[in-house]
Design a protein that fits this description.
Number of helices: 3
Radius of gyration: 17 Å
CATH superfamily: Electron Transport, Fmn-binding Protein, Chain A
CATH class: Mainly Beta
Distance between the termini: 5 Å
Number of strands: 11
Low-confidence stretches: none
Number of domains: 1
Structural class: alpha+beta
Shape: globular
């Protein structure tokens, strides 16, 4: 399905609120969000990634995600729980709070090994303040530090292929919409 033209379901029809505009959500995400305190809503933009444990239970952890090229990206070590989970079962969800809306995307995470793409994502993370760089393999990242939940380097880059998204607007007039892609 075309991510530019998803099928929308109005979750706020009960309150006579209109369907929200996916293009406006994408534009807000493309404007960027940092995780620095005081930079977003509420107080900062925290991304939460949910993966599936081997027993079927959810695993939720905070991550430093990016929105670029129309999709969400994250990085983690291969031996972290989220890394092992997505290697076994790629289904995942990512949530993000902005001042304008709360967003949940559902989809599948795939490891990216193309050196040019890994290099481009490293540059975006570095531009955002994390000094990521491509390691000697050309397929993973390294840096002097990362979040403790990322494990030790190398850190692999993942892209979430979005299959569905739900937005709850947090400013007037409100509204909630779910899209299928």
């Amino acid at each position: 399905m075309d991510p530019q033209q998803p099928v929308a379901t109005n979750l706020a029809d009960l309150y006579d609120l209109p369907v929200l505009d996916w293009a406006a959500v994408r534009a807000r995400l493309a404007a960027g969000f940092t995780q620095a305190p005081g930079s977003g809503g509420p107080d900062r933009h925290t991304c939460w990634l949910t993966t599936i444990n081997a027993d079927g239970s959810p695993h939720v952890t905070g991550i430093g995600a990016l929105y670029a090229e129309g999709g969400f990206w994250f990085e983690t070590g291969g031996q972290t729980r989220k890394g092992r989970n997505v290697a076994r079962d790629s289904r995942c969800a990512l949530s993000l709070a902005t001042d304008e809306f709360d967003l949940v995307v559902e989809g599948r995470a795939s490891r990216v090994t193309d050196p040019a793409t890994v290099r481009a994502m490293a540059a975006l993370w570095a531009d955002g303040g994390w000094p990521a760089r491509v390691d000697d393999s050309g397929q993973a990242l390294t840096a002097e530090y990362s979040a403790p939940s990322a494990g030790p380097p190398p850190w692999f880059v993942y892209r979430i292929s979005v299959e569905a998204a739900t937005v709850q607007r947090t400013v007037e007039p409100g509204g909630a919409t779910r899209w299928r892609f």
